[in-house]
Amino acid sequence: MSIWEYANPKRFMQSSARVLPWVTGLAALALLGGLAWGFFLTPDDYRQGSTVKIIYLHVPSAMLAINGWGMMLVASLIWLIRRHHVSALAARAAAPVGMTMTLIALFTGAIWGQPMWGTWWEWDPRLTSFLILFLFYLGYIALWEAIDNPDTAADLTSVLCLVGSVFAVLSRYAVNFWNQGLHQGASLSVDAQENVADVFWYPLLTCIAGFVLLFVALVLIRTRTEIRARRLQALEARERMA
Amino acid sequence: MIALLLRDLRLAVRAGGGFGLGLAFFLIVTVLVPFGVGPEGGTLARIAPGILWVGALLACLLSLDRIFALDFEDGSLDLLATAPIPLEAVVTMKAAAHWLTTGLPLVIAAPLFGVLLHLPGAGFFWLTVSLALGTPALSVIGTFGAALTVGLKRGGLLLSLLVLPLYVPTLIFGAETVRRGTAGLETGPPLLLLAGITAASVALLPFASAAAIRVNLR
Amino acid sequence: MNPADPTVPDPTVPDLPATGLTVTGLTVTGLTVSRGGIPVLEGIGFTLAPGRALVLRGPNGIGKTTLLRTLAGLQPPLAGAVSVPAEAIAYSGHADGLKATLTVAENLGFWAAIHGTGGPGAALEAMNLAALRDRPAGALSAGQKRRLGLARLLVSGRPVWMLDEPTVSLDAASVGLFERAVRAHLAGGGSALIATHVELGIAGAEVLDLAPFKARPPAAGGRGHPFDEAFA
Hints:
heterotrimer, A: 6 helices, 78% helix, C: alpha/beta, Rossmann fold
């Protein structure tokens, strides 16, 4: 059986209904466990104090803000190439979730930045890139909302997602060029030397897993809603034709 | 293809204000800024490169929704889409017409407005060069936004929302060039990156714009 | 058979620009067209021989415009085949694509340049617009605008005309001019597909009623699109 079988709306509804409770449950477990572990069972940082603990919200949400857009890009490409409606609807479903992740990353960043840098907002390259990413999400969602015909909307938003991705990467390098920034280096890296200490690392990994599962669960739920809405539209159209 | 460019230019001239509108808007922005930030020459000179670039960008934005809207309403876009010239060429010519009626006047007038903002002497050359290199990208990117929103009744605000984040790299490299130029620093890297953005946009975005138009005409 | 043989040019019709039409018929088989993703007409099939006209009939909203736009290549069909490429088709829709601030000659000259077919002179003569050539299109009456829009077909140099309600807002004399232009086009080996509610004096025009092709609503479960069945 090919993976594309799941692009059939009916199959998708069946499989996602089976998977969803597990994903949701695991997401809740990992999130609650990871956050509790991180907040209450890890020591304060010798330099940053207890402020450092916001890392458990900030890093996972920032990762998903970027990867959410990446998922939309892949889903848009699948729609443009293979014309699977579920793919387009999944991209649509992911956008508000990704945008919320971007907002969480921005807000937790501000809360972290205030005691560390003495300011809520700094035009640092990373912060600025996230603000621009937020604008991209906003435009993408607004375009979906503005167009009535679902296939037209799917096509146009997919093209926007493609072009937007290129410009988002371009903006990332442009803002790097423009301001060197205060933000600390990556918290996670393949190079173990650069990583945060193990005692923060394991709860952080748990939180990341929880956020990923939460993202998957939310996107699945929203995609199912979109499919039902499309079905409703199709039924109404048939009503009118009969 | 040239016929299309000539027709659009002729329409811009006949409609009156095709050339003037963006320019007038640019002037308004330039005049309003000193009222907002105060008349000290030092402050103005420091922010002049950025203000001039942002003003040029907004003036470009102002006229974007007219690129395709009129042709869409009167059916010309349908006919152009069925004409023997490829839609990619139509889109490119539309962007070229937009640049000639909006971007080019801005490039020419910008040094004049630089005087109003006490732009330091070294900046004038770089302002003109960076605008001349950067405004074509603004027109091409804007044409893409206009192509996305051509079928929509009230696409104007949405168009701005879609296009503004796409303008960020162009603005950063353009304004950076002028800033470095006024400070006597090396302007090569931002200027080359700006030229790169323009070249890539002109080469690639017409395909995306034409695809969007085809979808919108369905 | 009609006494006026359509292959013999009408002497009262001025010569049209030499077009070098490739004489091909138009064959449509099993065509299904959609509006907003929903099929409106299905299984359409007809043949349009060179030199002939076909009149499309059907109540408003049945999908005449959708069919013409699909054939003109402005939207993809859901199914079926069209024998000629969209490049052979000159489409004329509800809007004429005229620019109010350009003169009649400029409007037409633009389309002639786009299609690479000489100047607008002969087409202006044929549609009796020569006297108005320097007037801005915005100052024309509705009928004159329509005639200018139809003159565009002449300068397109394409063999298959697709006309959507071409006689709207035309008076009797202008309808006569229009019929003459179509007859001359047919005599030159072209063909025309016309969606209209009025009787046109075009010899040998066949009539195609679209009502039998109206798409049936898909049965519950949507067998029309088996893959996306959950949407239907």
